[in-house]
Amino acid sequence: MPPIPGSGLAKGLAVTLRTMTKKSVTAQYPDVQPELPPRSRGVIGLFEENCTVCMLCARECPDWCIYIDSHKETVPAAAPGGRERSRNVLDRFAIDFSLCMYCGICIEVCPFDALFWSPEFEYAETDILELTHERDRLREWMWTVPEPPALDPGAEEPKEIAAARKTAEKLEAQRAQEAQQQEEEEGKE
Ligand code: SF4
Ligand code: SF4
């Protein structure tokens, strides 16, 4: 059956009428910053103090885009007669974001919580070579990492927090006991 003349125009106008009454969803970036979900994979931040240079992240990265250099240092014995220890010192930690596929494997495998996702995304460059970012920049991004979400009310208390709480309670009880003993001694005098 041949199309009715003007039906295409009517359909097009119907679409226009339908959409012109709806609120626009266009984001006026960069004048208005987008509200990103807290777990957005923008860039990877490095918390250098936690890094032991175990190389696990670099070995597991499917793109081989993490570059780590380090050297060994001897730490003197903590007590007389003790043994000297050697430890790794980080010299370079860089990620080539032109190769990175944002899979998150490096963050998952880091046993020492040294890598985190940051929602920061404004690091585009006109030269691809400048997308390799060194430890200072990775560290700056660390401060843009959002706080972890609160635990569910019924969730088990994390081991680290439980241990810190128990130690604090023990110290508090010890102090209270000492204060009570002192009061009693002062009362006797
Ligand atoms: S997110 Fe994936 S590809 Fe990117 S550095 Fe980490 S492991 Fe490598
Ligand atoms: S896995 Fe973690 S601790 Fe090991 S080198 Fe990578 S960032 Fe450092």
UniProtKB/TrEMBL annotation:
General function of this protein: NDH-1 shuttles electrons from NADH, via FMN and iron-sulfur (Fe-S) centers, to quinones in the respiratory chain. The immediate electron acceptor for the enzyme in this species is believed to be ubiquinone. Couples the redox reaction to proton translocation (for every two electrons transferred, four hydrogen ions are translocated across the cytoplasmic membrane), and thus conserves the redox energy in a proton gradient.
Reactions accelerated catalytically: a quinone + NADH + 5 H(+)(in) = a quinol + NAD(+) + 4 H(+)(out)
Basic and acidic residues composition bias: residue spans: 156-175
Record protein name field: NADH-quinone oxidoreductase subunit I
UniProt xrefs under Pfam families: Fer4
Keywords: 4Fe-4S, Cell membrane, Iron, Iron-sulfur, Membrane, Metal-binding, NAD, Quinone, Repeat, Translocase, Ubiquinone
Region: Disordered, residue numbers: 148-189
Domain of life: Bacteria
